[in-house]
Specification:
Residues 286-394 form the HTH araC/xylS-type domain. The chain has two domains: 31-275, Rhopdopsin 7-helix transmembrane proteins; 280-400, Homeodomain-like (Arc Repressor Mutant, subunit A). The chain is mainly alpha-helical and 401 residues long. A two-stranded antiparallel ribbon has the order 1-2. The protein contains 17 helices and two strands.
Amino acid sequence: MNFETIERRNCIEPGFSYLTAATGTLMSLSLFSLIVLLGAIQALLLGITLLFSRAHSRLQQYALAFFMLILAYNGFETLNWSTNTNSIAFQFFTFVPIFGLGPCVYLYIYSFIYPQKPARIKWYFLPVWIMLALRVLLWTDVWLFLHGHGLRMHPMALDTWYGAFAEPLSVVYFWIFMVRTLLLFRRFTPANTHLPATEFTMARRWLTAFVWNMAVLGVMWLGTIVMPRFWPAVYYWQYYPIEIYLAFFIYWIAFAGYQQIKIVYIVQQKAAATTFIDSIPEADIQRCMTALEYAMEQDKLYLDPDLTLQSLAQKIQFNPKIISAVLNQRMQKGFNEFVNSCRTGEAQKRLLDPANKHLSISGIAFDCGFNSQATFQRAFKLHTGCTPKEFVQNHLQKQEN
């Protein structure tokens, strides 16, 4: 990059700056490039975390992991041209990984509804391998051209021809799977997932946001193809909005990532429990339910803030998997929901007990086994429909009337 180019970029991109490396290479780093760089790093870290984390569904795990890694590559590729770095490494895979984006979105949603992977899953990624093969052939021709051989057509012309059909084709392929995803998502219902109400609501909220963000991305992506056909002056600039959108979408997923990973695990645990409980004798199920009720109503184990599924299993002498299956399939509750419902019931009694007037709401919450005020407020409103303060006020109003 020469200084004339740098001055021109200073006029085009407000906030343009550059770092001088030891070799004297200048790398532009505008505000746009910084946003994309941070987004790409976030996507890379989350993708690697998902790739090597424990999961009940490999399909679900790998679909989201490779989805994030594709976005990470796209971010670094965008950084490559937006900073005029023009690294040859990104020229090898132009319009290759992006063909896997649509299939990853579809398979991620699919894994929430069906426990088994699709029969022809390998065919979904066939375009990725075809485009990779074309890039290999193109670079082989470049090598031959530099050595006095190769095709009659100049490699640059071949690359231009490749980009002319690969870019719109990648958008079309994404939308093929986006339409399939939207149709498939309609099947995400309590009947098809066998989830307790709380977990289903959490998963539904997350997947709805995810799917519609992908639909918005698809529309913006289509715009990058259509706009230059009608307004040639916007060429190159049409990519800025979608890249910024992608960066903030990645931030959102990254910051909410751990919670969403938990939802992934919850869904698979419920699916596994559906088949597991069928192998448990009915007498054992009834004994487990009785033991759970006794442990909460008589022993009040929920008052222990450190209570876990494993410690509860030791107390009532049942396998944790059996307890989890009974809670999920017979009582339609997750472990935390079950324990917090008992804690909420105890909190209601103590809030209305005149002997506890000297205690704050937070103090009662901690005495009932909750380990945070936020968890208590959320659980209390979920089970009663009002906040603890409103619950007390409503009781006082009834007494006055």
